[in-house]
Amino acid sequence: MATAAAHPGRVNEDFTGALPTAAVLVDGAGIPDADAICRHGVAWYASHLGGSLLGLLARLPEQSLPALLAEAIEQVTEAHRDTCDVADPISPSAAVALLRVSGGLAEHLVLGDAVVLLDRVDGAPLVVSDPREVVVARSYETALRATIDGGIDGGAEHRRLLRELRANRNRPGGFWVAKDDPRAAEEAVTGRSPVTELSGAVLLSNGASRIVDRLHLTDWPGVLTTLAAGGPAEVIDRVRRAEARRAMAADDATITHCTDLSEALRRH
């Protein structure tokens, strides 16, 4: 595993953790001016959701991954419902990636803009993603870019557009993330593969997956090659160097590389 905040001294809003037979990655969504909505913040939400998922994965191995995610969302929402406006469009939310080895299968789940990369023994790696947020956000790109140099009202308009974009969360025709409604878990992208067909799996936050989908520094087989040679930290270092060269805003970046899945199966 490796993780890095977007900037030194800034709180990292990603979370990752693992059990002998499962791995969890949570990519918290940071929203400006949200302190009045939720006093806990996005990092609190991400870490509590991730911790809840790890506990549920350990205690309820027979439950489906969407059911476990729904229960974790409910637990974290109840933990701050009385103090925060959990239903507000800019209250904390997160993308989630899960992997579990059970009964000879490697099960995966993706909700939001995280990525699961399955390293197949034969053939190209399988990339599991949930593109709905990217599709919705693309329709706002031009207007958001215009507000950056929009004069006196540019900042206010930028915040308004972000709020409008976030209002598309967890509704039909929009995109789905972990937030306050456990029913969002039913919209996750899920699948399973025989463990014997996989040599490994990788969970990436969107700050790390940009090595392929935004920075175009390599392809997914290239990511696996870099992981094998230098580990997750090397992938994140490459991302940071490219961001600096291109003056691109950085994002929290987290990678969990799961290897020797047959050993996890034996433990199960």
Radius of gyration of CA atoms, rounded to a whole number: 18 Å
> Mind summarizing the main beta sheet?
5 strands, antiparallel
CATH topology of the domain at 2-130 and 176-205 and 252-267: Phosphatase 2c, domain 1
Contiguous helical run count:
9
What is the β-strand count? 10
Shape: globular
Structural class: alpha+beta
Please describe what this structure looks like.
- By secondary structure, the chain is an alpha+beta fold.
- Helices cover 38% and strands 24% of the residues.
- The protein has a domain at 2-130 and 176-205 and 252-267: Phosphatase 2c, domain 1, CATH 3.60.40.
- It contains 9 helices and 10 strands.
- Helix 4 runs antiparallel to helix 5 (154-166), helix 6 (206-213) packs across helix 8 and helix 7 crosses helix 8.
- The longest helix has 18 residues, at 42-59.
- It starts with a strand and ends with a helix.
- The model has no long low-confidence stretch (mean pLDDT 91).
